[in-house]
């Protein structure tokens, strides 16, 4: 696919736009959204805007790291942006500094140092433990339930609370006219059958959670948003200008379609009347309504600020013409209003090659979809395609668990993007893993990461970091040459010489550690350790003085042991990981989180929500059948429209080839007599979205790959 070295004309106009107006950019998939945002920031820096007064708001921490790295690389130095990251983190910075006095008065206690933030995994653990107190065999209401039934109820309610706590807080705050009064668990979001019977349980856990935060003087992400808005909204205009607005010259917002109403109000509080907001997004990729986001946010912004200037990026640099054409057809039925309708005549297009026809894999056989995907991937590999160029994408995480495990058993290693979001990943954890894998296999990535870690810890100049980051090929040999010559004697300041000496000392110790590691590789590949054995292995091999600066290494060891447990849980104990495989898989996740690129020997699995912003040469989108995609609980026109947008996101991740998969093998109980219940296939239909696209066995515009044995595809045609 075509890559961008210089901005195209549409991007250039946006980058250099200089009128004193708020600017909105509607950017289709693969249109260079991030590239344009970065070039806009670089343009501002070249014009003399102080980076400390540029606010960059991203949806994820990963996104801001990518933006900062690319800007630093372009300027060959580290730029210190005063306020950048997720909106939660920016609000936290203001609460700790500019608004500290007001926050302390509101809370009634002093805030020493940083605010203590509870992370998502800790919230989940808290809720899980509280639910165990409520739902257990000792409770008379559950004595008749089996242990499996109790566990399932706990899991359903824990999943509801995981998303619902934050959304209840935010929506309650807005609905109650910005009141901080804590109400009950007012709205249930899960569609799981019978969940509404447990309203009182959800209320109790929610209140216990709030009490826990208050007693421990901790905050969750919603608190940061709410407290910031509450305090700023009540400030005198002059005081707000002094404390907040004067700190910022330019505001850039990424993934605008994922913002909720309160977040938009906060962006406006930061801006005041300065008309300095620049936002980028795609309403066709708005798929976070469960977090309060709404695609009409573009029209809402335009209605409240008619003078705002809107642009649209339409050239797709990612996908083939075949993929772009099908994606456009899918969205033809989406209604458009306001500014979106005004811009609707500007359609997405690409100058890329025509490409292969989109394939439709259809099967109603047991295990048919798994076999077809496996054989297709096997064929791609025979043509020299690396596994990391392939992604298997699903609407729900549960859709791929069995598939992931079967692939492992068949020798296809894989990582799951959603799994990576459900594990705590402290940097000490990364370092310890890389240290051990270096000892075991002299792994080049591990070596480079440890050197980079030291440079970042010492706040080294950017050019030292760049020299280490640029190492490729035989990295250990290059490190030896680089450090033995003091980086070619290019850097001679006292600070640089001190840091280079620390790198040399680290390198000497790392070589000793690798030389002294005596466990045979075959033993690591053969041994499947228990939790206790694995923990003992970690304790035995992490006593090096290289690790002294990590502080409490026991926390990092505990995190790695927890990873082993979650890996086994995710595989449902159907895959047995050797010591070597545990580290190999863990390192694959670390590579992905650090470089945003999957190891070449690992296949990508992801939900649609977890792979936004990603792209792959070959993409499989699973379970395109009714009640799975669109998902069962999507009933209203708005809910179906969001499901359609989710499919659009999945389809537009593909660069070269796209495979849409309809696994129509479903068993349903059918009463055929009064005396016996028999099971047979029946009732399922392929997704209505495929019907909208005109998919059928005679469609010459698609590659129809059928493995049906119950009849023709017409048997499975949806009515709606």
From TrEMBL:
<keyword id="KW-0067">ATP-binding</keyword>
<keyword id="KW-0378">Hydrolase</keyword>
<comment type="similarity">
    <text>Belongs to the helicase family. UvrD subfamily.</text>
</comment>
<protein>
    <recommendedName>
        <fullName>DNA 3'-5' helicase</fullName>
        <ecNumber>5.6.2.4</ecNumber>
    </recommendedName>
</protein>
<feature type="binding site">
    <location>
        <begin position="27"/>
        <end position="34"/>
    </location>
    <ligand>
        <name>ATP</name>
    </ligand>
</feature>
<dbReference type="GO" id="GO:0043138">
    <property type="term" value="F:3'-5' DNA helicase activity"/>
</dbReference>
<keyword id="KW-0547">Nucleotide-binding</keyword>
<dbReference type="GO" id="GO:0005524">
    <property type="term" value="F:ATP binding"/>
</dbReference>
<dbReference type="InterPro" id="IPR000212">
    <property type="entry name" value="DNA_helicase_UvrD/REP"/>
</dbReference>
<feature type="domain" description="UvrD-like helicase ATP-binding">
    <location>
        <begin position="6"/>
        <end position="320"/>
    </location>
</feature>
<dbReference type="Pfam" id="PF00580">
    <property type="entry name" value="UvrD-helicase"/>
</dbReference>
<keyword id="KW-0238">DNA-binding</keyword>
<dbReference type="InterPro" id="IPR027417">
    <property type="entry name" value="P-loop_NTPase"/>
</dbReference>
<dbReference type="InterPro" id="IPR014017">
    <property type="entry name" value="DNA_helicase_UvrD-like_C"/>
</dbReference>
<dbReference type="GO" id="GO:0003677">
    <property type="term" value="F:DNA binding"/>
</dbReference>
<dbReference type="GO" id="GO:0016887">
    <property type="term" value="F:ATP hydrolysis activity"/>
</dbReference>
<dbReference type="Pfam" id="PF13361">
    <property type="entry name" value="UvrD_C"/>
</dbReference>
<dbReference type="GO" id="GO:0000725">
    <property type="term" value="P:recombinational repair"/>
</dbReference>
<keyword id="KW-0347">Helicase</keyword>
<dbReference type="InterPro" id="IPR013986">
    <property type="entry name" value="DExx_box_DNA_helicase_dom_sf"/>
</dbReference>
<dbReference type="InterPro" id="IPR014016">
    <property type="entry name" value="UvrD-like_ATP-bd"/>
</dbReference>
<keyword id="KW-0413">Isomerase</keyword>
């Amino acid at each position: 696919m075509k890559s961008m070295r210089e901005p195209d004309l549409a991007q250039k106009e946006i980058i250099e736009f200089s009128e004193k107006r708020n600017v909105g950019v509607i950017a289709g998939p693969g249109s260079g959204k991030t590239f344009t945002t970065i070039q806009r920031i670089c343009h501002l820096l070249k014009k003399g805007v102080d980076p400390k007064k540029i606010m960059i708001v991203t949806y994820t921490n990963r996104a801001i790291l990518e933006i900062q790295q690319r800007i630093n690389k372009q300027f060959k130095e580290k730029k210190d942006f005063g306020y950048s990251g997720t909106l939660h983190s920016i609000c936290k910075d203001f609460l700790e500094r500019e608004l500290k006095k007001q926050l302390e008065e509101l809370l009634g206690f002093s805030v020493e140092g940083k605010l203590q933030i509870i992370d998502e995994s800790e919230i989940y653990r808290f809720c899980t433990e509280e639910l165990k107190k409520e739902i257990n065999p000792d409770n008379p209401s559950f004595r008749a339930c089996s242990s499996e039934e109790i566990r399932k109820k706990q899991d359903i309610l824990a999943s509801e609370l995981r998303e619902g706590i934050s959304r209840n807080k935010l929506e309650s705050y807005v609905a109650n006219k910005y009141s901080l009064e804590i109400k009950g668990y007012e709205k249930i979001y899960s569609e799981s059958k019978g969940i509404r019977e447990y309203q009182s349980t959800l209320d109790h856990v929610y209140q216990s959670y709030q009490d826990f935060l208050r007693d421990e003087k901790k905050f969750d992400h919603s608190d940061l948003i709410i407290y910031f808005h509450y305090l700023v909204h009540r400030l005198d205009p002059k005081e707000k200008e002094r404390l907040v607005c004067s700190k910022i010259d330019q505001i850039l917002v990424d993934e605008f379609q994922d913002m909720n109403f309160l977040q938009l109000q906060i962006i406006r509080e930061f801006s005041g009347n300065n008309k300095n907001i620049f936002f980028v997004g795609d309403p066709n990729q708005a798929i976070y309504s469960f977090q309060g986001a709404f695609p009409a946010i573009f029209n809402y912004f335009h209605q409240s600020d008619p003078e705002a200037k809107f642009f649209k990026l339409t050239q797709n640099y990612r996908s083939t013409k075949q993929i772009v054409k099908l994606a456009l057809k899918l969205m033809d039925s989406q209604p458009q209003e306001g500014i979106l309708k005004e811009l609707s005549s500007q359609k997405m297009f690409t100058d890329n090659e025509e490409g292969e026809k989109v394939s439709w894999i259809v099967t109603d056989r047991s295990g048919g979809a798994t076999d077809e995907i496996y054989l297709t991937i096997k064929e791609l590999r025979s043509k020299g395609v690396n596994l990391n160029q392939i992604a298997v994408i699903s609407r729900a995480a549960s859709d791929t668990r069995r598939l992931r495990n079967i692939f492992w058993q068949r020798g296809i290693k894989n990582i799951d993007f959603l799994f990576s979001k459900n594990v705590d990943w402290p940097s000490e954890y990364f370092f310890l893993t890389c240290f051990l894998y270096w000892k075991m296999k002299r792994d080049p990535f591990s070596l480079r990461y440890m050197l980079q870690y030291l440079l970042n810890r010492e706040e080294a100049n950017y050019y030292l970091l760049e020299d280490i980051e640029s190492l490729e090929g035989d990295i250990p040999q290059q490190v030896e040459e680089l450090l033995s010559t003091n980086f070619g004697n290019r850097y001679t300041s006292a600070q640089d010489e001190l840091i280079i000496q620390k790198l040399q000392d680290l390198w000497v110790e790392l070589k000793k550690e690798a030389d002294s590691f005596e466990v045979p590789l075959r033993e690591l590949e053969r041994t499947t350790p228990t939790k206790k054995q694995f923990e003992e292995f970690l304790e035995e091999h992490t006593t090096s003085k290289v690790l002294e600066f990590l502080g409490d290494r026991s926390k990092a060891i505990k995190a790695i042991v927890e990873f082993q447990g979650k890996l086994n849980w995710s595989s449902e104990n159907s895959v047995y990981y050797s010591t070597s495989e545990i580290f190999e898989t863990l390192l694959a996740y670390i590579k992905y989180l650090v470089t945003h690129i999957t190891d070449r020997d690992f296949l990508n699995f992801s939900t649609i929500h977890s792979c936004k912003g990603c792209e792959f040469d070959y993409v499989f989108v699973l379970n395109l059948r009714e009640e799975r995609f669109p998902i069962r609980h999507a009933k209203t026109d708005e809910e179906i429209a969001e499901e359609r947008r989710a499919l659009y996101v999945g389809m537009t991740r593909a660069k070269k080839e796209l495979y849409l998969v309809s696994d129509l093998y479903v068993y349903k109980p059918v009463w055929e007599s009064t005396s016996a219940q028999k099971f047979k296939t029946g009732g399922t239909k392929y997704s209505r979205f495929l019907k909208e696209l005109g998919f059928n066995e005679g469609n010459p515009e698609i590659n129809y790959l059928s493995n049906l044995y119950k009849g023709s595809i017409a048997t499975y045609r949806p009515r709606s």
